[in-house]
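Example 5.3 — 4Fe-4S binding domain-containing protein
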Amino acid sequence: MKAIRFTGLILFLFSLGLFLSSFFMSTLTLTEETFNSIVKSEHQETLKPVLSETFGNQYSTSIPFVKEINRAVEEVNAQAKTNQEWDKVIYDDYAGSLARASAEGFVPENKLLFFILIYVVGAIGSLMFILPQVKLNGPPGIKNNHIFHHALNNKGWMGILTGALLIGFYILLYFFPAYITNWIIIVDPLQKLINPSATSSQWFLYGFLYTFAVLVMGVRMLIKYRHSKYQIFRTISVMFFQLAFAFLIPEILVRLNQPYFDFKNMWPLDYDFFDAWHINTLTSSGGVGIFMFAWGITLFVVGVPLFVYFFGKRWYCSWVCGCGGLAETAGDPFRQLSDKSLKAWQIERYLVHGVLVFAVIMTIGVLYTFITGSNTIMGLDTYTYLRKPYGFAIGSIFSGVVGTGFYPLMGNRVWCRFGCPLAAYLGLVQRFKSKFRITTNGGQCISCGNCSTYCEMGIDVRWYAQRGQNIIRSSCVGCGVCSSVCPRGVLNLENRDEDGRFNQPILLGNDSFTVSK
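Solution (predicted structure tokens):
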């Protein structure tokens, strides 16, 4: 078994190394024909003289090529602004499309081979490393496995390196996609398989990698928590929703000439739902588009309070959500890193609800612009001061770069805990109007601390368990891991009548009684 795991590790490292090195495995040559086919005719007159000297030049990587394209665009724009020729200002991002069309060499000519060597071999290697754990770990269940002594799982050098790679990838993906042209090209065979008329993009790469991680690491989750039926069904659920609803169905809709739409995503997590371009796209797409728009509104207006009342926020955060799905699968090795301190809880409450307020204000501004046609409210431009800052700070930096890149540094639910506005909305409903709670049996608690250690949301579960108090924290996503790792069955996830939900025991020596708050 150890030999199989070692071989799997070698295969995985080979695929990872090939993925990283493929960044440098092509050359780029801009020709006049390529330029004419990509650049709009109205921009060719001003941009071609600036770039003409680069035609035919070969660049060893995408970095100097993209820099040259961006320099030319900036030069043209600066001249147009100086002359106040605003119609000649170029807003199109030509760097990525020109880089894609100009790429040549080993990677563009062998896309399918690279896809197989990186993703298929990588998946096989990962599974070879994961599957033998069924026998090597002995009986199912969570044991004292020295999780805090591992360099990956406790902010050691492996964790810091992993975090740095994730952060770097997200920065390139969100802000400099032209530089990762090779990575985008490699997934083109899969894009063509789903939709022959489409070409892969930065977002298709992102969606595929997201799904790939959830599926492969979902297998690890199933093995690790195989003693719990709840965890098995929950893990299968997030794997299904990510593969079907977040990845395949939207791509199939595009193939059918319908709007790209994720039926499980909703406002305010889907912060551009009420953008003018999105509303116009849906409402101009006939009955299907109008249904999508109505579905999106119904989901957060009716679906959230209804489902949270009966099942708690876990119905979404732990069973459906893609962010939660990635956190529970790929992020599971880092769940013990969540800060359980009172100070962290205080920061969490102010920050996550602050983001929710920001999302509401931003949406009001966007809707005001859409309805009235005016771009300003009280003299402030709604895009410049509301929509753009939210998209950059929350939609990109917080949810992406920090939310996932900080898994090995702050735990796997950084975004869900501190930044997700939908989690805040779900949590408010769960806190005050829900049948869901985690009940405890303080008399059985042996204070092993497993529950608090494995709580990804930073809840000191043991504190509640020792006192026999129900856990009704708004941040609790109902993942049930605290119950799954408890050796005494102290914790139980329940959907019961609201009566007695806030009952708290008062301890007097060896006796106790309850009062209702």
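Remark. Residues 250 and 260 are 5 Å apart (CA to CA).
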